[in-house]
Amino acid sequence: MGSEVNRPLADFPANIWEDPLTSFSKSDLGTETFKEKHSTLKEAVKEAFMSSKANPIENIKFIDALCRLGVSYHFEKDIVEQLDKSFDCLDFPQMVRQEGCDLYTVGIIFQVFRQFGFKLSADVFEKFKDENGKFKGHLVTDAYGMLSLYEAAQWGTHGEDIIDEALAFSRSHLEEISSRSSPHLAIRIKNALKHPYHKGISRIETRQYISYYEEEESCDPTLLEFAKIDFNLLQILHREELACVTRWHHEMEFKSKVTYTRHRITEAYLWSLGTYFEPQYSQARVITTMALILFTALDDMYDAYGTMEELELFTDAMDEWLPVVPDEIPIPDSMKFIYNVTVEFYDKLDEELEKEGRSGCGFHLKKSLQKTANGYMQEAKWLKKDYIATFDEYKENAILSSGYYALIAMTFVRMTDVAKLDAFEWLSSHPKIRVASEIISRFTDDISSYEFEHKREHVATGIDCYMQQFGVSKERAVEVMGNIVSDAWKDLNQELMKPHAFPFPLLMRVLNLSRVIDVFYRYQDAYTNPKLLKEHIVSLLIETIPI
């Protein structure tokens, strides 16, 4: 293949982490002491949680603190049991609706129930409205209450007008409220306006909340110390996982074999860490990060490297699932490398799934990748023909080209106890939660990447398709995309409510993957421009919390 081929290469920013592991402090000294301390504190926190049950409302506030401090996973079973009791208890709804239960408290109760899949009615906010059906004016003087209302309003589902109103009301005042709040509350309000807790990556939210909680008058020192030690102990594990992926990347000689892709090992790891941070998902994070590196290479190959003919040959090989690309197929070595590494990676997972008695799961895993490749291929064809798809055509293909079917399926692989064949079959049947996540992924990315994509030859985005079909301005098209994303979040929220179609941990993967999109793509394409994620990577993987 001569260098005379005209390729639509992208000017991707360079990798900013030559070797992230050199940035880590080597002092895991004293880990054993911390583990013992952790164990003692865990007992004390559990005791405090159990004794808080005497007052159901204080108990829910305690649960909220456990969640935000990132330690609720230790007490998941007890929390769900307790919420189940309160949710079914007749006195509880009365308590929430009483005058004494202020906006701050009602907001927290609403969030906590919905977070665990209990659909507490939105009418708990009715008492905060005046006779004209508007939220009472005096509420804006309550900074904590307004923030709580704003965070609660992220959990809205379709047909909940009061939640839509609560979101508009709280958002319109919070900016001004933050300017007259104490510095530590002002930072929290600004962070929430940028990424509300419900749409944030949980480790980032935890790291920020630990700093915030420390300054609060109501701070429980035992709980704070437990959260800090827990965060630091998990960080050691997370660093080891990143080291494992980095070694794999070096051993595969990825950097020299595929020069035109975005090399994003650390950012791919953050994506995976956003999907699950708990210790039992350690292997899952490693596999998901490796898959994300492969998906990035595939995406960039279709988008910014392969010619039409090469991509057709590549896609045909993948549709047939050839074990390796035959030498006589005229595609560049870098594309053969991507193909062979990807197929080998999937075949190995398939073998492992078979050995675990999860027969048939590998078939669906491969199918999810083939569907994604076909989605990329469709975009390449449109680009070649200079064709601007109708918005419906674009939306239908966008669900595949978002890559989220393949990614969700990959996150299920190491969830051995809950992701059996029926889970993969369900995922392949386009369940509403999957489609919502794919829409969030594609359109959030379209809105933020719009300017960068237009610097080179690139297929029309959803914005272009909408402008062309309906003859509207870019601003109007962006507004419509934003509404589509908001509606998809409402669908997602609804699918997280009980009764669940499939085990809750599987649904949580889809929610968490959508959260990653919000953090990575809401304002700019931070995966392509890694400087935008640098502070998060430093705070989660490089800096230890001082104790």
TrEMBL record:
One BP term from GO: diterpenoid biosynthetic process
Annotated ranges, domain Terpene synthase N-terminal: 17-193
Single GO molecular function: terpene synthase activity
Family statement: Belongs to the terpene synthase family. Tpsa subfamily.
Protein keywords: Lyase, Magnesium, Manganese, Metal-binding
Highest taxon, organism lineage: Eukaryota
Keyword Methyltransferase (UniProt): no
Required cofactor(s): Mg(2+); Mn(2+)
Protein name: Terpenoid cyclases/protein prenyltransferase alpha-alpha toroid
Signal peptide: none
Start and end residues of each Terpene synthase metal-binding domain: 251-491
